[in-house]
Design brief:
The protein is an alpha+beta fold. The protein is built from three helices and 14 strands. The two termini are 37 Å apart.
């Protein structure tokens, strides 16, 4: 199944693929047709693969924080979150390669208290300043008085972030809240007394992997 953000791109790619293959077949040599046709089919297969949207069942106990995306944990550190909390939090960052599923899922259930889109740069997603200088979105969800902030961050290849979250909306862990096109990362900011349950370089599955537990 494909994500809705990719349906128009897939339609255009499908029409373009058949049109180009027809033209190449009509006006080039068989060798050239095989070479270029193979490259076009591989590129088309990558587009289909990138916009895949696997259905997942999220199992979450009270206080669980679930990975928002597929990827690899690249940051676990205490830092100052300066946009909303303006105090110290534990930051857990997950980096996505272009081959990962790029659906972003709510890491917990609760009430959305804050959302904001920030235009910005397109530094590589693992750059230390990407969290504050790149194009990004910020969402804060409150669950029983505990607030968790998570941030979609564009990378050098990701040139469009899609966010569905709206303030005062009740949301459920594991549901879609957006999509990042072509590689990036998600930062999650947690209270200092949170128990972190992942390690650096550990791979995660969005909507499946438990990354932390709120006290």
């Amino acid at each position: 199944m494909f994500h809705k953000e990719g349906r128009q791109i897939i339609l255009v790619a499908t029409l373009g693929l058949f049109g180009l293959i027809f033209l190449i077949y009509q006006y080039t040599s068989p060798v050239f047709f095989i070479m270029i046709g193979t490259l076009l089919v591989l590129f088309y297969a990558f587009i289909l693969y990138f916009f895949r949207n696997p259905k997942r069942v999220t199992v979450s106990n009270e206080g669980d924080i679930i990975a928002a995306v597929d990827g690899k944990v690249v940051v676990i550190e205490e830092t100052v979150e300066s946009e909303y909390f303006k105090d110290k939090r534990i930051q857990v960052s997950i980096f996505m390669s272009p081959l990962n599923v790029h659906v972003t899922r709510y890491p917990l259930s609760g009430l959305i208290k804050y959302t904001k889109y920030h235009p910005g740069k397109f530094l590589v997603a693992w750059h230390p300043k990407s969290s504050t200088e790149n194009e990004r979105t910020t969402v804060v969800v409150d669950k029983g008085g505990k607030e968790v902030l998570f941030r979609q961050i564009a990378g050098a290849l990701a040139r469009r972030i899609v966010l569905y979250s709206k303030q005062d909306e009740q949301v459920k862990v594991g549901d879609d809240f957006g999509f990042i096109k072509f590689g990036s990362r998600v930062d999650i900011f947690l209270p200092l007394d949170t128990e972190i349950e992942v390690k650096l370089h550990q791979k995660t599955k969005g909507g499946i992997t438990r990354i932390a537990k709120l006290k």
